[in-house]
Write a structure and sequence with these properties.
Oligomer: single chain
Strand order of the largest sheet: 32-31-30-29-26-33-34-35
Pathway: Porphyrin-containing compound metabolism
Low-confidence stretches: 1-54, 196-211, 559-567
Structural class: alpha/beta
Strand content: 5-15%
EC number: 6.6.1.1
Shape: globular
Family: Belongs to the Mg-chelatase subunit H family.
Protein name: magnesium chelatase
GO cellular component, one term: chloroplast
């Protein structure tokens, strides 16, 4: 129990002199749980606690010397030296005690032992010591070595000494290390090839988790069988299995006997001595353990009987209605006596009135034990209200291979919230506290990302590790947070609906009356209305709910459709400063950034104001914004400021005054999860952790944004529930574009008559009027053209308008609980059908149709891109036939209302014997009548499954499950077209195993895009390759495409990723110049803050790749990475390796360059200021040689690297988000910045890869902006779709125009006609003006302001008359807004 006492310690060697940098909180109380600096000190002081300040720059500074035990004197006894390597430190104290006891006996031998944690072997000096220790070692022991690069280091070192050593014992680890096993005649060097059942066990890839269970069964039975076999081989195998039993037994007594057995049997000097050893003391493989119980239990009823008779419990625990929490523990911590952190959690839960059932398992599969001990076998109901795993591992498979479907099945039976808390494994407590990154990346991959795939939530660090003894100790503030939150989730299971209190939180970004209720693709107020109606029907108290969504808007923003500006919004609570300080323990920490409360944000000068409206037990509140978006000086700070007082007051109100049982954040996304603090594994002085407090957090998140959803899960402890993006439609053609299409049809039927040349000249002049002359090289009017040239001009124009027509766009906004109708799903199905899925044996529909006419679809795409008229026409026919056949199929599965009826039955009848399928019927009327029916049948079978998923609706159902304390099934986020498993929505979104990317398929796609990019740049650059490409890596894109853009960077520099036995990518190797067939292209990689948080392992991989390439002995003209690194090293006076720094992002805990905030809030003076924001916020580098240092500012290197860029590059990977839909894309665009940094002042080429369809394209940025404007902002289909959603739709239109100005500011790649046409569409048209003004006057005012700003900043040249009209309109709309107030 001693571990329950917290001991103070100092932070850094000279902490007394440093303490002024710590927050006042920490100075008073430098305890384990609260000794971090404030996150916003940068402006006034340079102090920051950072691992870089310490030692070797790695994550752990611990040394093996703390695990070295030397005998006091050998008294002439033979010496036995043991070297061990383990994943975690729980064996350290147990093994040390065993060795000290043996040495104190002074019999047989004197033992010397030294232990290494596998993570320490990254340090070169430690690795050298390890190799030296092995040179005179008798016995080597390894266990749970599952990190490939370290496994290979262990293998290489041990292999050299293996034959000389007396025994090598490796317990479950990667095959490369398992093969080192050697015990007399027993060896595993043939592992994976031998036929024996023992070896077959290691080969079974599929039943990964079962591996450990099979191993345990074998361990139990084999020694008994082998005992009676006479051969040495059998006896050696028996001793290996006994060793494993001793090791898994883990107690000092077991380990003593283990060392006696191995030393006595295999160390030559001891063979003559008969060393007696006892058999292993066997503990249960799985069972229930409680620190105060007399024994372990393998029957839950017996345990509950004991629990019921306890006399030491408080009154709360005697209450039959007390919440019951199931705990999942690792057996090794219990048997080795390293269980102080488990005891602390059990005691804390009981002190707070919760009963516990703590189960443990010895294998890596906890699914069986959870079902066995936590579910009543008679009623099939769970005994518990919530489950907390304290192992940190996935439920099935631990650090090795996982079996997520099996885990989900077990958790579904339990049907309670599932929390996975984290013990620190690879860092000591001190190292974690000092790290800005928080958790070690390998631990994030193994113990955060993998449990998320099971549906695990709330990665709270609850225990630390002592650097000296290796023992785990509880972090008390964290244990309190974990236990309180677990009980709050459990309460949701037990509370009745009519008393449950729910705080719905909406966002307002940028802060403006017209922006209340912003969320990606979501009609927020209509959705809230739909949710509340349903909850009311279900028994929740929602008294006073208005009759319509419009009524709801009016209540929250105080007047119909945002038509007044003071006092801003409806005020639900005025909080006095005294009340605020009493309810908000961290309030004083915010004063450094924001001064004394109440401040001037969300305040009336005396009180802090909480905006929103309460209906019965439901509160709808407006989350305050960051607060610094309107201040250009604050936007320049390299690190983000703390939340302001109004922000903190909002969450204090929700938790402590309104007393919410749960908070529902409504839509993608708010600011809470992006507040400063550690990236993952937060401490109690990280702001997201302080703000969310103890409230269970449910969060509706767009299904196509798994990366930011993952940040919300990890940093605001959210149960993220996915919602659908609006159904996509083809952009279609309008106005002049439609006319062009008709002219081209005429040309095709009349081109061989005398009218051909005349029609072509009409096509050319109409194309000019439509501004297509920027995209297509048009001849001068009146120029004589040959028939072939005419065909080519028409083909190119045709190809361009086909591209516009078939572009997918989400129309309107989604409403929660309203799935798309079947016909709305057609465009999505057409796009799903356009992709080959070789792993499922499914061919693409365009591919099948092209084959019918003897063509390869890739060739048709290429020909169409070149403007070959026959290919453009064939592609149009293929596209039309795809849409037609899929519509015919969908038509047969729907009823008269357009709803999908039982798809399964309809499909069975369609695919039934003697039936002609609807798609075959349709194709029989086209030139594709001979299409392969077998391939079509397989494809349509798959499309039938997809259709069922698209129209399924579980968004409301899952929300209700979460609010009732049930388990919400996990599912991947991403693009439903690439990965239909994203559907149906209403799942707890997860990302992917970060170590699984890039996949082989992603690498293939990446090569195609890189080759096209370099080809395009050569054409635009006089036949020369670009020397450097500056590009962006996004979190969501890499999840959706399984690492395509990551693979693009690797392919540019010419390295390939190498996967280990488990398919995890932790290594790269260079590709030869011969194979590459071109020079290695240098890169400057700007990783988004979200990518940095999710894929720090991949940043490590990239940095390693770049440095590896810079150090290759190759000619500079073939290796631009080396060329530039040598130049920069000479200029900066550093090594080539340091100069080859190319992987950048924000400082830890900060996100975005703030250029988007400045543009959205018009808070910038000139482009130079935007460029300074970008440089100050994005110049933090990652260094693979010092990964523990996190992100370090290296602005000079960043500027030098950018100054060599010949091209900038971004990826678009899904049809829902394009360049002007969100501000992130221009926020990360360095095109104008590069021009200002280049010595020759030349503007780099700017490219965008578009992989949203099967026909991947590389376009210039200007082409992409034009395509975007034509298909969205200027397209009646799109803007009318938005207008139909009312208030929110006007905001969406305004947002597209603001983002277009953003592109003018960062790249200068927006044509004048885009603004001119937008002005014609939205301002010249009187009826349109009136509709915008009436629907959302605040957003209309911003729209008018944006036009004036575009002109004022020189991005739009227009007539004085237009400007005058806009000025007049601006004052009219101002008067109207203010007039309504009066």
């Amino acid at each position: 129990m001693s571990s329950l006492v917290t001991t103070p310690f100092s932070i850094l060697p000279n902490s007394a002199t440093r303490s002024e940098g710590l927050s006042s909180l920490s100075q008073k109380n430098i305890f384990l749980h609260s000794c971090l600096p404030r996150k916003h000190l940068d402006r006034s002081r340079s102090f920051r606690v950072n691992c870089a300040a310490v030692g070797n720059g790695l994550f752990t500074q611990t040394k093996p010397e703390v695990r070295r035990i030397l005998p006091e004197s050998n008294q002439g006894l033979p010496r036995v030296k043991v070297v061990y390597v383990v994943l975690e430190a729980q064996y350290q104290s147990s093994l040390s005690e065993a060795v000290r006891t043996l040495n104190s006996l002074r019999k047989y031998a004197s033992f010397e032992v030294v232990g290494y944690l596998v993570e320490e072997l990254r340090d070169e000096e430690t690795y050298r010591t390890f190799c030296q220790d092995l040179e005179d070692a008798n016995i080597f022991i390894g266990s749970l070595i599952f990190v490939e690069e370290l496994a290979l280091k262990v293998r290489d070192a041990v292999e050299k000494q293996r034959d000389r050593m007396d025994a090598v014992l490796v317990f479950p680890s990667m095959p490369e290390v398992m093969r080192l096993n050697k015990l007399g005649t027993f060896s595993m060097s043939q592992l994976g090839q031998s036929k024996s059942p023992f070896f077959q066990l290691f080969k079974r890839k599929k039943q990964s988790a079962g591996f450990a269970d099979s191993m345990l069964k074998l361990v139990r039975t084999l020694p008994k069988v082998l005992k009676y076999l006479p051969s040495d081989k059998a006896q050696d195998a028996r001793l290996y299995i006994l060793s494993l039993q001793f090791w898994l037994g883990g107690s000092p007594e077991n380990l003593q006997n283990f060392l006696k057995m191995i030393a006595g049997s295999y160390v030559p000097a001891l063979k003559a001595t008969k060393i007696e050893y006892a058999d292993p003391v066997l503990f249960l493989d799985s069972g229930i353990w409680h620190p105060l119980a007399p024994r372990m239990y393998d029957d839950v009823k017996e345990y509950l009987n004991w629990y019921g008779t306890r006399r030491d419990v408080n009154e709360k625990l005697k209450d039959p209605n007390a919440p019951i929490i199931g705990l999942v523990l690792q057996r090794s911590h219990i048997v080795t006596g390293d269980d102080g952190h488990y005891v602390a959690v059990i005691m804390e839960l009981e002190a707070r009135g919760a009963k516990v059932i703590p189960l443990f398992a010895g294998g890596l599969d906890f699914s069986g034990p959870t079902e066995r001990y936590l579910v009543d076998s008679i009623t099939n109901k769970p005994f518990v209200n919530a489950v907390v795993s304290l192992t940190g591992f996935a439920l099935v498979g631990g650090p090795a291979r996982q079996d997520h479907p099996r885990a989900i099945e077990a958790l579904r039976k339990l049907d309670v919230p599932y929390i996975v808390a984290l013990p620190l494994v690879f860092q000591t407590t001190e190292e974690w506290l000092n790290s800005t990154l928080g958790l070690h990346p390998i631990q994030v991959a193994l113990q955060v990302a993998l449990p998320e795939l099971d549906g695990g939530m709330e990665p709270i660090v609850f225990s630390g590790r002592d650097a000296r003894t290796g023992k785990s100790h509880a972090l008390h503030k964290r244990v309190e947070q974990l236990c309180t939150r677990a009980i709050r989730w459990a309460e949701l299971k037990r509370k009745s609906k009519e008393v449950k209190r729910l705080a719905i939180t909406v966002f307002s970004f940028p802060p403006d009356k017209g922006n209340v209720g912003t969320a990606a693709y979501l009609n927020v107020f209509a959705s809230i209305f739909s949710v509340l109606k349903d909850l009311k029907k279900d028994g929740y108290n929602v008294n006073g709910l208005p009759e319509t969504p419009e009524g709801l808007i009016e209540d929250v923003i105080h007047d119909k459709e945002a038509k007044f500006s003071s006092p801003n919004l409806n005020i639900v609570h005025k909080m006095t400063v005294r009340e605020y300080q009493a309810l908000t323990p961290y309030a004083s920490l915010l004063e450094e950034s924001w001064g004394k409360p109440p401040g001037n944000l969300n305040s009336d000068g005396e009180h802090l104001l909480v905006y929103g409206k309460q209906y019965g037990n439901v509160f709808i509140g407006v989350q305050p914004t960051f607060g610094y978006e309107g201040d250009p000086m604050r936007l320049l700070f390299s690190k983000s400021a703390s939340p302001h007082h109004g922000f903190a007051a909002y969450y204090s109100f929700v938790e402590k005054i309104f007393k919410a049982d749960a908070v529902l954040h409504f839509g993608t996304h708010g600011s809470l999860e992006f507040m400063p603090g550690k990236q993952v594994g937060m401490s109690d002085v990280c702001y997201p952790d302080s703000l969310i407090g103890n409230i269970p957090n449910v969060y509706y998140y767009a299904a196509n944004n798994p990366s930011e959803a993952t940040i919300a899960k990890r940093r605001s402890y959210a149960n993220t529930i996915s919602y659908l993006t609006p159904p996509a439609e083809n952009a279609g053609l309008y106005k002049g574009l439609k006319q062009l299409s008709e002219l081209i049809s005429s040309y095709q039927s009349l081109k061989d008559t005398g009218r051909g040349p005349q029609i072509v000249s009409s096509i050319i002049s109409t194309a000019r009027q439509c501004n297509l002359d920027k995209d297509v090289d048009l001849p001068e009017e009146g120029e004589e053209l040959l028939p072939k040239e005419r065909d080519l001009v028409v083909g190119k124009v045709y190809s361009k308008i086909m591209e516009i027509e078939s572009r997918l766009l989400p129309c309107g906004l989604h409403v929660i609980g309203e799935p798309p109708s079947a016909m709305e799903a057609v465009a999505t199905l057409v796009n799903i059908a356009a992709l080959d899925r070789p792993e499922d044996g499914i061919y693409s529909l365009p591919g099948i149709l092209a084959e019918t006419v003897g063509r390869n679809i890739e060739d048709v795409y290429r020909g169409s891109d070149k403007g070959i008229l026959a290919d453009v026409e064939l592609l149009r026919q293929i596209t039309e036939a795809s849409r037609g056949s899929i519509s015919a199929f969908v038509d047969r599965t729907t009823n008269k209302k357009g709803q999908v009826v039982d798809v399964a039955d309809k499909l069975t009848s369609m695919l039934g014997f003697g039936q002609v399928e609807p798609w075959v019927q349709y194709l029989s009327k086209t030139k594709f009548i001979r299409a392969d029916r077998e391939k079509l049948r397989t494809l349509f079978d798959f499309l039938g499954d997809c259709l069922k998923l698209i129209v399924a609706d579980n968004e409301l159902g899952s929300l209700k499950q979460a609010l009732e304390g049930s388990y919400v099934e996990p599912g991947p986020g991403g693009d439903p077209i690439r990965n239909p498993k994203v559907l149906p929505t209403g799942k707890n979104i997860h990302a992917l195993d970060p170590q699984s990317i890039p996949t082989a398929a992603a690498l293939q796609s990446a090569k195609v895009v890189v080759d096209r990019l370099l080809e395009r740049q050569k054409i635009d650059n006089g036949g020369k390759y670009p020397e450097t490409v500056a590009l962006v890596l996004w979190g969501t894109d890499n999840i959706k495409t399984y690492g395509e853009s990551l693979a693009q960077v690797l392919w540019m520099i010419g390295v390939r990723p190498i996967a280990d036995t488990f398919g995890r990518v932790n290594r790269v190797e260079p590709v030869t110049l011969e194979e590459l067939g071109r020079p290695r292209v240098d890169v400057v990689v700007n990783c988004s803050g979200v990518f940095r948080d999710l894929f720090i392992n991949q940043m490590n991989l990239l940095d390693r790749g770049v440095k590896m390439v810079a150090e290759l002995d190759e000619p500079e003209e073939q290796n631009y990475v080396r060329k530039h690194a040598l130049q920069q090293a000479a200029e900066l006076g550093v090594s080539v390796r340091d100069a080859a720094t190319r992987v950048f992002s924000n400082a830890s805990g900060s996100y975005s360059s703030n250029v988007n905030l400045a543009v959205e809030n018009s808070s910038w003076n000139d482009e130079k200021q935007l460029q300074d924001m970008y440089l100050s916020r994005k110049s933090f580098a990652f260094d693979c040689d010092a990964p523990g240092a996190g992100m370090t500012e290296k602005r000079k290197v960043f500027e030098m690297a950018l100054s060599t860029a010949d091209a900038t590059f971004q990826n678009l990977d899904s049809s829902e988000i394009s360049l002007t839909d969100v501000s992130h894309y221009f926020d990360s665009d360095p095109t104008n910045l590069v021009q200002s940094l280049r010595r020759d002042g030349k503007k780099p080429s700017a490219y965008v890869a578009d992989t949203t369809t099967a026909n991947a394209q590389v376009r210039t940025l200007a082409e992409t902006v034009r395509l975007d404007a034509r298909t969205k902002l200027l397209n009646p289909k799109w803007y009318e779709g938005m207008m139909s959603t009312g208030y929110e739709g006007v905001r969406e239109i305004e947002k597209r125009l603001t983002n277009t100005v953003g592109w003018s500011a960062t790249s200068g790649q927006v044509d004048n006609w885009v603004y001119e046409e937008a002005n014609t569409t939205f301002i010249d048209d009187e009826e349109m003006r009136r509709r915008l003004m009436e629907t959302n006057p605040n957003s209309f005012r911003k729209l008018v302001q944006t036009f004036l700003e575009a002109s004022g900043r020189g991005y739009w040249e227009t007539s004085e008359e237009n400007i005058e009209r806009l000025r007049q309109l601006y004052s009219e709309v101002e008067d109207k807004i203010e007039g309504i107030e009066r």
